[in-house]
Specification:
About 80% of the residues lie in helices and about 0% in strands. It contains ten helices and no strands. Helix 1 runs parallel beside helix 9, helix 2 packs across helix 10 and helix 6 packs antiparallel against helix 7. It is globular. The mean pLDDT is about 80.
Length: about 230
């Protein structure tokens, strides 16, 4: 079982890296073919500021649907802090900032499960009208399973954290270690492996794509209001 988990983990990781490289090449090619330059440094600073606001607060989503915005914003922020909390299993020694954020990450785990459930209900209710894809619902459901199993391990079925860290570091260093004998952890870990191939790549390219989108909007605005 331990060796099977190791093989599946490396297979998923290899597929993820290949997919990431492919999308990066496609994006770079599109960027090179559609170069657009802003006119002044002031314009550039404005575009950077708008991009940061869009990335942090999901400005456009807030304008289009405040109900979806609430769940989506909590979902993404919680996911970020849960990710930081989990770095303790992959790093040795654990950085001080990761240790400091452990209580925040624990609370974020509960919020992540709640926001995933909220989004699933909202997206399902609005599915016909807003053409929500099945893959989107599947990802939300997977995140709920991952976060809910994490909450269960936190509060009710605590696994041996030392064994978990040895298992995860063993995967990273190609030095296999025994998997924790905890069914909730196995569900948690396997659901995460299933999630990786389905991760939408806008999660990783969001800064570049958002910047490009804002830049094009601003340049279009400048063209439309040019004085002749």
């Amino acid at each position: 079982m331990d060796m099977l988990l190791l093989v599946v983990s490396y297979l998923v990781y290899a597929l993820f890296c290949a997919r990431l490289a492919f999308h990066a090449l496609v994006w770079l090619r599109a960027e090179n073919q559609l170069k657009v330059h802003t006119r002044t440094s002031a314009d550039s600073l404005r575009i950077i500021a708008i991009t940061v606001i869009d990335l942090i607060f999901f400005r456009k989503l807030f304008i289009s649907s405040k109900m979806v915005w609430l769940g989506s914003w909590v979902f993404h922020i919680s996911f970020f802090f849960v990710f930081l909390r989990h770095l303790r299993f992959f790093l040795e020694p654990v950085p001080g900032i990761v240790t400091l954020l452990q209580p925040v990450g624990k609370i974020a785990g509960y919020l992540l499960a709640a926001s995933a459930a909220y989004l699933f209900v909202i997206r399902t209710a609005q599915g016909i009208r807003h053409y929500v894809s099945r893959s989107n619902l599947f990802i939300i459901a997977l995140v709920f399973v991952i976060s809910a199993s994490g909450v269960l391990m936190n509060g009710f079925f605590s696994p041996d954290l030392v064994v978990i860290k040895e298992f995860m570091l063993g995967i990273l260093t190609a030095n296999p270690a025994d998997a924790p004998e905890n069914i909730i952890f196995l569900v948690h870990f396997l659901a995460f492996l299933v999630l990786i191939p389905f991760l939408p790549f806008h999660v990783f390219t969001a800064p570049a794509i958002t910047f490009e989108s804002v830049r094009r909007e601003e340049n279009l605005f400048l063209v439309m209001h040019d004085k002749k």
